[in-house]
């Protein structure tokens, strides 16, 4: 990480945050003193103990995924910590001192972040802040894809690409919770073993075998009812091949390619397949509030050890704020199985 240090004016309350001044590689990330956010109407201020990496952070750092209008320019789509201040207009269950996790449009890589009160979730009593930071973006994305977009049904087969990713590990468990049958793709035997332990009924190494053929074999020729796809272009033909007639193919990322070459529409039409796309970050405050409420009601109780489902976030590794460069490189190399966590509270409170 760059040693660049810059102080905010003394009269402005400041905080330490991860920033970049020029889009590019992980080496462009730097720690910097920036103004502390002030909660707006309906927002709360959180002292962040932990955040987590998402692929969107890598894209934003490269200059390819700007934050939505009005959102923080800082990286970080989720955080866990202590609520320290209520903005005007806040009412309901939240109080200063509450342990919370938050879905964010940006700003999680910092000592403090402001968030709409409707986008908060209570941290399960037995969770650490590191575990809590692994939940908001990945688990709400997976929940949204399965229930709000694909409308998954009991007994359906769900093919989850990148099954060992943060979203993938969440989707496996949430599909099981819904009574569906999750199957996955991943790039190593170790990742496939981990997905099986989470509940995947089958797993296919996309580097060594034809996942579309394996999916058809597993489903006795019927194909997957739902495909959750963050790869996109490079896999389109294989996805359509193993999609069940009247199935739903949900694209939420383009890690493979954005361009599509060939008769996609004709082949999809022949199966009466639905091509659905979704992003979470750019959704409205109201949509996210509805999603958070549904997740809190239907999924969050199952993170309890007493629940038969026993949902659990999967943590790959933990980095300090000072080692954010190495964390980004780890994700870019596709080495992680589960979430990469960033400890915030261990960082110094100022740059000295």
What does this structure look like?
This protein is α/β, with parallel strands linked by helices and 352 residues long. Helix content is 26%, strand content 26%. It contains ten helices and 15 strands. The strands form three sheets. Strands 3, 4, 5, 6, 7, 14 and 15 form a seven-stranded mixed sheet that branches. A six-stranded parallel sheet has the order 10-9-8-11-12-13, with helices on both faces. Strands 1-2 form a two-stranded antiparallel ribbon. Helix 3 crosses helix 4 (166-177). The longest helix has 14 residues, at 136-149. It is globular and about 60 Å long.
In short:
The protein has 10 helices and 15 strands. It has helices spanning 55-61, 129-133, 136-149, 166-177, 189-198, 211-218, 236-241, 264-270, 285-298, 324-332, and strands at residues 14-20, 29-35, 43-52, 78-86, 99-103, 112-116, 120-122, 157-160, 181-186, 202-205, 224-229, 243-251, 274-277, 315-320, 339-343.
